[in-house]
Amino acid sequence: MEIYVVKQGDTIYKIAQMFNVSAEKIIADNELTNPNNLVVGQTIVILTNGANGTTHTVVSGDTLFSIAKQYGVSLSSLMQANPQITNPLNLQIGSVVTVPNVNQNKREIEVNGYCFPNISDSVLNKTLPSLTYLSIFSYEVLPDGNLVNISNDTRLIEKARSQNVAPMLVITNIEQNASFSSELAHEILNNPVAQENLISNVISKMQEKNYYGVDVDFEYLFPEDREAYNQFLLALKTAITPLGYILTTAVAPKTSKNQEGLLYEAHDYAFHGKVSDHVIIMTYEWGYTYGPPMAVAPANQVKRVLDYAVTEIPSRKILMGMPNYGYDWNIPYVEGTAASSISNVGAVDLAREVGSFINFDNVQKAPYFNYWQGSQEHVVWFDDARSTYERLKFVEEYDLGGVSYWTINQFFPQNWLVLNAMYNVKKVI
To answer: Which among 190, 233, 243, 325 is least surrounded, fewest beta carbons within 10 Å?
Structure first.
């Protein structure tokens, strides 16, 4: 894999000649919607490993999974080498599948993707081969321990399992039609009857829906509820483990044990590291809707969190958070004003539309660009192949278990190209 940064005067055909790869392959791999109008500073991922592989002619009964198993390659790498295939379960007999060379030196990691129930089938089909877990967001918890049902999760569970991805039930302390509620969590965590009911409902839902485990995403807890939260997680883990289910917890990005703030204080890294099968660290939102302009997940800030996290949590239990979005701010920034969310693909499209060059911040390891809309200046921070690569290197550096994406509802082709070039994705079912 090569990450190429577009320069003035570049064309997709010139880049293709430079790397001895067809322009059509580059366009397909990166899903370039406007290949004849590249943006200076835009990244292009060049894949060459498939060229020295082999090919397989599809026969009756073949699926991408069976072909991957036959040749001893990962399903994600096979999907990466064949971007023209949109449904891995429905192959055309007689069509040719490219089988890339196996890289035995790549580490195997676990990859979680959060999704909302309205994710499209096309995005889901393209993403599932690169996932270990699909965490469906979310079942909201009521004060009495009952759960607010999610519509359409059956479709996602069935699709996930069809591609050997483990579906995870997500519970949150989000109030209906509102946001994370400290008061709601406090009621539950200090009511043994409600907790018992909640644990029973979680188990029933996992059994009914064929989930693989549960992810607990309780945020903005009162500091005094720290120990109550720990004991709830222990009770939940004790109840589900004999039934064969796993427990994942999501925690705020802390840099010290006693970090102050409502987001941080009740998340006990050491305890989560003991009781949880995986701990998802939400290493994003440094740049956020109502905050000043900066990268959503600056590499230097993510590194500070990991420096602390591995002292409290077994590193192989950690799934590092990866955002899949950026923000567009008005500048100069005025406190209290809101930035607009933008997809990573949409950010490049916007740069093309407004005629901006894309810059790269070497401290935060993230791309950005400025533009004017009338008399108002804007700055956009987002992710590209470079920033993705820089943070994914932390998985190897800190010996992490893997990564977790928030969210996978928008497809960002370059992320999956980079991830699959660097690591093999573990399947647990």
So the answer is: 243
Give the CA distances from residue 398 to residues 81, 101, 148, 274, 334, in Å, rounded to whole numbers and listed in that order: 28, 27, 38, 18, 37
Furthest C-alpha separation in the chain: 68
Give the C-alpha distances (Å, rounded to integers) separating 152 from 115, 129, 142, 158, 209.
12, 21, 20, 11, 11
Does 219 qualify as catalytic in the annotation?
Answer: yes
209-247, pLDDT tens digit by residue? 999 999 999 999 999 999 999 999 999 999 999 999 999
pTM of the model: 0.90
Q: For residues 73 and 389, is the Cβ–Cβ distance under 8 A?
A: no
Q: How far is CA 55 from CA 27, 100, 208, 212, in A?
A: 21, 8, 41, 34
DSSP symbols for 276-336: -SEEEE----SS-TTS-S--SS-HHHHHHHHHHHHHHS-GGGEEEEEE--EEEEEES--TT
Q: Which residues contact 235 (CB under 8 A, 6 or more apart)?
A: 195, 199
Options 110, 140, 219, 390, the catalytic residue: 219
Q: Is the dihedral of CA 321, 322, 324, 327 positive or negative?
A: positive
Q: What angle do CA 347, 349, 355 make, to 5 degrees?
A: 100
* Mean pLDDT, the chain, integer: 95
| Cis previous bond, 200, omega within 30 | no
* Structure token digits, residue 410: 């928008």
